[in-house]
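A quick aside before the break. I want you to see a complete sequence-to-structure record at least once, exactly as it would be stored in a machine-readable document. Don't worry about memorizing anything.
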Amino acid sequence: MLSRTADSLFWLSRYVERAENTARIIDTASRLATLPSGYGASTNEWESALAATGCLSAFKDVYGEDPTAESAVDFLAFSPANPSSIKNCLEVARFNARAVRTALTAEMWETINSAWLELKNYGPGELDLSQLADFLRFVKRTSLAFDGSAYRTMLRNDNYWFSRLGVFIERADATARLIDVKYHVLLPPESHVGGGIDYFQWSSILRAVSAQTSYHWVYRQSLKPWLVADLMILNTQMPRSLAACYASLTRNLDQIAQGYGRQGASQRAARSTFTRLESTDIDTIIAGGLHEFLAEFVADNSRLGALITEQYLV
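That is the input. The structure line, written in C-alpha cells, reads:
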C-alpha cells in the first residue's frame, strides 16, 4: 500500500471518530447545563466541554471571553477557526475519502458523502435546543453508520487495519480527556464530592460514552466515581475504555506487522501501553494520581500516533 493511501485511511477514520466524540461532549454539556441552580453554585460545563476536546485555548484566542452555550456550540460544531469542529472534521473526512475512494466500500463512501451533503442544512447560530439535538443525532448516526459499514463490508487487509488504527487512537484520546476533565475541572470547588451534582455529572459522562447500562451490568450498584473510572480505563469489555482501545490497537498493528513481515516502534509502544493497563488496577491508579495517570496516557497515545505516522504514513 502507498503511504499516502494509508495516511488518508488513518485520518479519515480519525476525523469521523473525532466528530462523533465532539457531538457526544456537546450533548453532555447541554445536559449538565440543565442542572437546577439548587444543585450547587455556578458550574463550568461549557468550559469543561472545550477542555475535553483540547480546544479551550484556541477558543479563548478567538473569543477572548468565557464561553457561553452559544459561543461554545458554534466553536465546537461549526467554526472555521477550529480545525477540530464537527463541520471541519466531516469536510476533511470527506476529502480523505475522495482521495482513497477505491479503497472504500460503496457503503462507506455513500455514508460519508451523504453526511457531507446533509451537513449543509446546518449552520452556526441557527440551532435551537431541538435543532441542536437533531444535529448531534445526525453526527452520531453518521459515525455509527460509517464505522458499522467498515466493520461489516471491508476486507480484513491493510485498508481495514489502518482505518481501525485511526478509530482507536482517536477514541482513546477522547475517553482519557473526558475522564480527566470530569475529575479535575467539572465539579465546582464548593460542591460535595459524592453529592447530587457529582452523581449527575458522572451519570452524564457515562451517558456520553453510551455506558450507563454497561456500568450497572458490570458493578450492580449505584454510581461511584472510582468504579466509573475503572470501567472507562481498565475494563476491556467496555468498547470505549482505554484498555479496549489498546487491545484493538495492538491487534491491528500486529496484523500490519505480520502482513508486511516486520515489526517496529509502533508495535512495541502499543504493546507496552496495553501491558501497563493490563497489569494495574484502579486503586493503584488513584493512589498514584488519576490526573497524572491520564496525562501520561494522553502523551503516550499521542506519541503512538506519531510513531505510526513515522513508520507507515510518510
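Two observations worth writing down. The two ends are 12 Å apart (CA to CA). The longest helix spans residues 3-32. We'll return to this after the break.
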